[in-house]
Amino acid sequence: MDEKIIDLKKELDGELSACENVADLENIRVKYLGKKGSVTDLLKEMKNLSNEEKKTFGQKVNELKNEVSDKITERMNDLKKKELEKELNAMPEFDVSMPPSLDRGSYHPITLVQRQCEAVFKSMGFAVEDYSEVVTDYECFEALNIPKHHPARDMQDTYYLENGQLLKSHTSAAQNAIYKKYKDALVNEGKPIKAIFPGRCFRNEATDACHENTFFQMEGVMVDKDISISSLIFFMKTMLSEVFKKDIKVRLRPGFFPFVEPGFELDISCLICGGDGCPSCKHSGWLELCPCGMIHPEVLKAGGIDPEEYTGFAFGLGLTRLAMMKYGVKDIRDLNSGSLKSLSQFTDDE
Ligand code: DAH
Fold first, then answer.
1. What is the pLDDT of residue 103?
2. What are 162's strand-pairing partners?
3. Whose CA is nearest to atom 12 of ligand 1?
4. b/e map of 124-134 (b: 16 or more CB within 10 Å)?
5. How many CB atoms lie within 10 A of CB 84?
6. What is the mean pLDDT of residues 74-86?
7. Ligand 1 centre and the CA of 219: distance in Å?
8. Mutation probe of ligand 1 site: the residue of 139, 168, 252, 257 with most atoms within 8 A of C-beta
9. Phi, psi of 315 (to 5 degrees)
10. What pTM value is reported for the model?
């Protein structure tokens, strides 16, 4: 019997050193320790022995069982270590001091200008709000002093859902909700309403180099006691000078929008010639950028704010237009094209 144990150990040692992978080792474990394995067979042979012999032999087989199990575990650890090393060696070298790969993606130019504007307004205490793309007729028009059949609706024809809701034709559609959200803090705590809300807008529009059915705007409002047109000019000038990284002159021309009174078109000094006149600004020295105005009393009322006590300004910055101006994009359709050739050349220059 003792010889059998010695032979079995020898055989096991030979097999273990020849075994080169984890799966084969598993087979060896079954061959020796499994229900029909060689060690288990030895135990079965005990039935032919005397009681005294059974005791010593049983002990030896148990020791053998432990030894076999330990050896297999040890070999298993060895093999796992080797397999891991092999895997690691097969991996490409990673140098932490290398600059990031140039193949990574880039932000869309509209995202870039949106983020720049948000950063500037945030630093001036404005909250950045997100608003749904699907809105009601009330939010998009009625609450903005544009009743049914008002001619101003013609320019804002958009896409209607079967339930009567619509895809917002301008970010002004969020104004009513913003006033309602912040009015209590304004009245009870004296906190001015200062919010911007960038968003995607839609219009039923024939597309060409300057028109798209999908574009981005960023609306901004500020409401408090004694807000005047000079507050509007200050905030716009500061924001635009930051975004364009140069001192920007602004001017206001009268403009009509039913939700502001008075309403303006805000122009900025030409980015190319600085105001001297060049082909880009049609020799006027000015570029039209952002409609704005003092919020109409009816609009404040619809938002639950007393126009006798509070005033405010609102503006609707065309983010798409801003991105085109900042990055010299000539055709608006390139921005929605998904063409990486056009879109991946812009980087955040912050
Ligand atoms: N919502 C207007 C549009 O898309 C733009 C606009 C004009 C927004 C005047 C304003 C504003 O906030 O005061 O045509």
1. 67
2. none
3. 315
4. eebeebebeee
5. 10
6. 89
7. 8
8. 257
9. -140, 155
10. 0.70
